[in-house]
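Have a close read of this protein, sequence plus structure tokens, and explain what the tokens say about the fold. Thanks in advance:
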Amino acid sequence: MSLEQIRGKLFYQGLLLGAVALLTSAALALASHVTEVDIKAAEAADLKQSLTQVLPGTYDNDLLKDTVTLPGKDGDVLVYRARHEGKVEAVVYRMIGHGYAGALVCVMGVSREGKILGVRVIKHAETPGLGDKIDPAKSDWIHSFEGKWLGEPVAEKWAVKKDGGVFDQFAGATITPRGVVKAVKQGLEFFEQNRAALLDEAAAEGAVK
């Protein structure tokens, strides 16, 4: 085989290898794009399900697209707003508490009157059989927040009974419910501190002027 033939063969093999690499990259990029779309759709569905668990009733806007971000005690808080005929009737947002085994990620729904519509702990690492009673599938404890507001009970009673409050603690696990109660109370304080912005009242007042 001559030198020219060898060079031609190597050139051909290089082109072939490059084409295969290009096709493989294109296939991987397409698969990644399709997978990313599916993942985002699944995440959106899960998020909407979490929001509706603490938001009884019907609303005529897309919760996931009607949001506002406001500064909170531990960082920015992303708030989802539920409207009926353009008026904000309720808001949903996350608060972080601290349990025995780590962070307690709570999502809570609050009516425009400042009353709790629902609370769920959507992420935790508490001990099975003890701290996991914050899960509504394990007990009704989490429902004890519904209808409560900062005036009922009064501020000093927003605690577990062991600390002089009105909320039950769990046998052998006081830290977990204590963390949830504290997070929910902070969530109500956040609502009161940002009521106008959350309910779009500031914008409405500006329009009237």
